[in-house]
Amino acid sequence: MKKIVCTIGVAAGTLMVLAARQVDFSGVIRGGERPAIAVPDFRGDGQAQAFMDALNQTLWNDLDGSGILRMVPKTQYPTTVPQQLADFKIPPPAEPAPAPAGGRVRRGQPSAAPPPPQTGGGLWLSDWAIPPAQANYLAIGYTAVQKNDKLPDVPPAFVLRGWLVDLSQSTPANAQALAKTYIESPDEAGARKAAHEFATDILERFGAKSLFGTHIYFVRHTGTLKNPVREIWVMDPDGKNQKQITRFNALSDFPAVSPDGTKIAFTSWVHVNPAIFVFSVDPVRDLRFYNQRGASVTATPSFTPDGKQLVFASSAGSDHCCRIFAANLDGSNLRAISSPNAIDVEPKVNPKTGAEIAFVSGRSGPQQIYRMNMDGADLDRLSDGTGEASNPSWHPEGQILAFAWTRGFMTGAFHIFIMDVAKRDYKQLTNGPGKDENPSWAPDGMHLVFMSTRTGSSQIWSMLADGTELKQLTTQGVNLHPVWGK
Amino acid sequence: MFSKRKITLICLAISIALFAAGCKKKVPAPPPPPAPVVTPPAPPAPKAPVVGQFTAEPSSIQRGQSATLRWDVSGDVTSVTINQGVGTVPGTGSRQVSPTNSTTYTLSASGPGGSVTASATVSVAAPPPPPPPPPPATPEAPKPTLEQALGAGVQDAFFDYDKSDIRADARDALTRDVNALKAILSDFPSATIMIEGHCDERGSAEYNLGLGDRRASSAKDFLVQLGVPGDRLKTISYGKERPQCTEADEACYQKNRRVHFSPGQ
Questions:
Q1: pLDDT tens digits, residue range A473-483?
Q2: How distant is the Cα of A320 from the closest Cα of chain B, in angstroms?
Q3: What is the ipTM of this complex?
């Protein structure tokens, strides 16, 4: 699997390089050399040993997936791995320079002392900075399940002690870039959480936002051909902690998440015709959005940047689907934004400006991406009219859209593209077999989640905005329409 | 192991012994006198079996009835068989048979003097037809449900890709549907009928919500123009959420680009 992903990634990367236009996406794609970090496997004491695979894997994946660090392969590490900063030894002072030329070494005379060692086998800082490791940073640490002697009633906890070591420094004391203790529940979930927190602190040192704590909402498809069932689910950015949110046992689809991450809006057929629902996430509760009576379709909602309104598509007030509307979160204050001539769906308000809407329309023929002001004025088509385009998702900074496009492919063969809205420059991020649809930006503005059929079934994947670091997040069943929220 | 020399000596000894034996002179014995020729008398020729009787009584039956085969074989008999599944039988006997069709039975008797066959035919006539069943007490058939009535009498109408206008074959199908829909609506005076709009899997799921809605409302407009009461027809779009097949080929795509009629809710 990993190999396939790698191959696809490399192939996609190569093709992108070949097809590259001179486009500046420096806001979302980091170029240049990334700092190299070595992350040897941490060891755990006693009960903690059982959770070390989860911890090591989580820490590695979080740092690897960040897109700002280069992971030094574990095969290139020195043999001895320090578990704490105090394990580092200071190399002995360098030997005085050899005797000047002309000085003769007498034969048969044993040398006075063995030559000084060239490495500390891993216990010198420099061991990690020189080949083969050649790292700039090193993360080390250890774990244990501990009980607090002073608080006998408190159950034992999983404790991670972690260090980030700056290998450009000459002494261990100076090299400590981070030293912190993390205390979590003594189980696998606790170990993962501790690893996420340590990774978050490391990434913060490099000015990057961690995705730990953000959520990906998606749709899981079950049931039969005659009686399909779709429910809204949520999971962590690494695909863990999958939880079901809706339990309508009906078709519920197209989730959107509020800017503060506390609410979702989606479309459901549970009351026959497709209609909008707004739910709080924790606890899960129906907040009761009022759908216009008699509208055959009210669907594809998303939140405005202030989180106080929804924009959506509806056939309300006309015989045909759909115009773009805006309304309050309870359905009041309803007003139409676009005219009722074509199919307009999937409105997304610019999260930075709050002043424009990207949406999908069939007004010029096959579906394309358009933009308009909040009052419907200054309408512009963003995609160039070729193929079919759908699923616009605004980058948090409001200048770049990710979307799905069939440009250059056969009908229905969507792939993920990003576009600089002001310049209309675009870049294709995915390639290869299957369809890639529904891209959604992560809150860090560097990652995207999307759905792909490249493995033969529809699953949720994440990647960096340059198309690398592809990760499959779901494997079970059929999973669709992801959206990344706080 | 023997040494070479020993082997040579042994061989030599054997050769000499054999040579000595072969050289012994022998006097040949006189030949024996020829045996006297005796011709035994020929055995009497066996008599071939004789079939005295092989009959079927009666020789004509109706299907389901039976007939009796009788036979009597005399002479030197080693076996008597009757074909058509009767098998090996004694020299004299009878057997009941009930063939379903006209059948010729062949009796084969064989013995050392030869074999002989005889046959008998049973003609089978079809029985007269049974009397017709009495007419049912209440001639009323069970009433179909609305779903059954729609399934039996109302056809789907199909569309082109990314289109919601009624093409020629859909026009024909919907025109045929008009009378069926009117009849069903009068049979079910309180019912409404849902026109479902569906799409193939290629366009985006979100856009297809709109496309399915437009297909359903195009079909509704067409039916209302032809006199189907519009207040009894509702529309719903399922986009591409409820396909009836999932193959990625045009045959399946076309099956899914349709409007379908179901009971209103």
A1: 999 999 999 99
A2: 6
A3: 0.85
